[in-house]
Amino acid sequence: MNQPLTLLIKHPPTFENERLYAFHVILKEFLGLDYRSIAEKRQDVLITMNDTEGPELLVSDVLFQTPTDKWIKDDSLPVQPLETFDLAQVPVDIACVNPIIPIIYGSRLDGGDYINVQDAKIELGIDIFGSAFFMLTRYEEIVKKDRDQHERFPAIASFAYQEGFLERPIVNEYLEILWWSMKRLWPNLERKKREFQVYLSHDVDWPLGIAGNNPLRVLKTGAGDVLKRKDFYLSMHRLKSLAKVSMGNVDADINNTFDFIMDLSERKGLRSAFYFIADHTAGEVDGIYDLDNPWIRKLMRKIHKRGHEIGFHGSYNSFRNPDQIEKEFKRLISVTEEEKIYQESWGGRQHYLRWEAPATWQAWEEAGLTYDSTLTYADHVGFRCGVCFEYPVFNLLQRKTLKLRERPLIIMEGTMFGKEYMGLSYEESISLLRRLMEVCKLFNGHFSLLWHNSSVVAKREIELYSDVIVNI
After folding, report:
1. What is the structure's pLDDT at 229?
2. Is residue 99 reached through a cis peptide bond, with omega within 30 degrees of 0 on the bond before it?
3. Rounded to two decimals, what is the model's pTM?
4. Residue 119 CB partners (closer than 8 Å, separation 6+)
5. Which DSSP string corresponds to 283-339?
6. What 3-state class would DSSP assign to 405?
7. Where does 4-117 show beta strands of DSSP type E?
8. Torsion, Cα of 234, 239, 244, 248 (10° steps)
């Protein structure tokens, strides 16, 4: 039986915790390769096989050469505008969204290129490990102080948006460059097999739009359907729902689209995740329902019985508050146990996508959650973490890897439709959805989509969501 091939990584001695995390995620998590690492005095990363003489892969090392007094400070950020490299200039054949590759961190090789291919030696001027670390840990979000009205780091402040690569998973592209190089040097290497996956999630902010709501507010919303949204059908639908709910038929509530969502998911063999709010730290911003509501309990039982997932939706003011997150998660677990709902893992997302590096990750870790799926931007869709794979997270301030995993969110429907965000038409939204789905398929990655239950009530919303799911 053949012995598994083991890579040997020789690297500079600086920032060892950070390096080991980057090596683990890139080599073990993403590629499924065995390796061991040794720190020594050098200026680059050397990759060889089984500590024997033979082919060598040299990878640029820039971020982890940062002086400690400049770490996580402005001076350590990439220099803009970023340099780029055209893969068409070298004989490589890799999966990429665009052959023009932005260089987050790197250094040009002798001759001015970023890739130098020889028979038994390949040099990469791209700092693949440092650049991936930068994106995966959300390094820039600690350094930069830009925040929107909800105290969120906005897409427009990110390097990915400013340099035009937010809609491409740059870490996946770097990964393919690294893999191509290793496979060329060591043809017997085999990488982890991956398949394209779709994650559908639904933040349950307003499970009911009529029941428990002020009838006058509902009537005003119905008038707005006609006057503002020019949607007579939606207005009539809302008013009919109001009449039925007033007669005691809560299931007729306009926002009760859960069966419709689960039906569509099941038709495609998919599992939907529904994330519930367990407390109200900001009043009605966190919705108006309570987990003790019998109708909510019945809904949760139905979701579980049909084989879908129950998850956690941290309230508006919880994202910096570990005690509050723990309290809310314990409340959710208590309710699900009372309803005899048991799951092997628990994940979810922060309300309004309010998240702060690394405080929110650490709070979720301490509360005992399995995965987070908050990380996309509210103001623009795309790859906030630069990747379409799930991965373990790293606390930059405590310098340690956490058990918590990040399942990056790619698209929130409100980002596409919202006039304060991208303000796309339905036709533009469909085109964007399909394009980013194809990007994830290119890398056998994960396409993660958030669609609120309250956003499949208008006829066009229903048509759009149906089109997306049916054509996955």
Report:
1. 73
2. no
3. 0.96
4. none
5. GGGG-S--TT-HHHHHHHHHHHHTT-EEEEEE-TT-TT-HHHHHHHHHHHHHHHHHT
6. strand
7. 6-11, 34-39, 44-49, 56-60, 83-86, 100-103, 115-117
8. 110
